[in-house]
Structures are given as C-alpha cells and as structure tokens.
Amino acid sequence: MRNTMLQMQHYLNPLHVYCRLVERGLDKRLSISICRSYEICIYSWVSWLSMIMVHISKLVKPAI
C-alpha cells in the first residue's frame, strides 16, 4: 500500500503533470499556469493525504 501511495504521489506531482501536458502538445505557458493552479488547489491536499497514508501504513503491521 505504501508503494502505491508513493507512486500516486509521483504521478500527481505538478512537475510530472506539466511534463505530460507539454508532451501532449499543450502550450508551455498554459501548462505552467494550469500546474500552478493545480498545485495550489489540489496537489497540496493530495500530498498531505498521501503522507498521512504512508505514515499509517508504517504503523500497521502486515498479517502473517
């Protein structure tokens, strides 16, 4: 579960999103403005929640 959360955090990272938008053909300026808004409005919550989930997963011992 921890690896999944870290992988999601990576894919939802604003820089990663920016690269994918530019890769798909969006203008660089437009991609930057989209990613700035995304980072402020959405990613701050995603990052916070994923860090909490990682810490919880460290506390929970797997069943044998």
What does the secondary structure layout of this molecule look like, with pairings?
Blueprint: H1 2-11, H2 14-23, H3 28-59
Helix pairs in contact: 1-3, 2-3
What does this 3D model show about the protein?
The structure is a single chain. The chain has 64 residues and is mostly helical. It is 81% helix and 0% strand. The protein is built from 3 helices and no strands.
Number-wise, the strands total 0
Q: Estimate the mean pLDDT confidence.
A: 86
Shape category: elongated
Q: In angstroms, what separates the terminal alpha carbons?
A: 16 Å
Q: What structural class do helix, strand and pairing data support?
A: mainly alpha
User: Can you give the helix content as a percent range?
Assistant: over 70%
**What's the helix-strand series?**
HHH
Q: Could you name the ranges where pLDDT drops below 50 across 5 or more consecutive residues?
A: none
* DSSP summary: helix tally: 3
Rg value: 15 Å
Please tag this protein with its features.
mainly alpha; 64 residues
Nutshell version of this structure?
About 80% of the residues lie in helices and about 0% in strands.
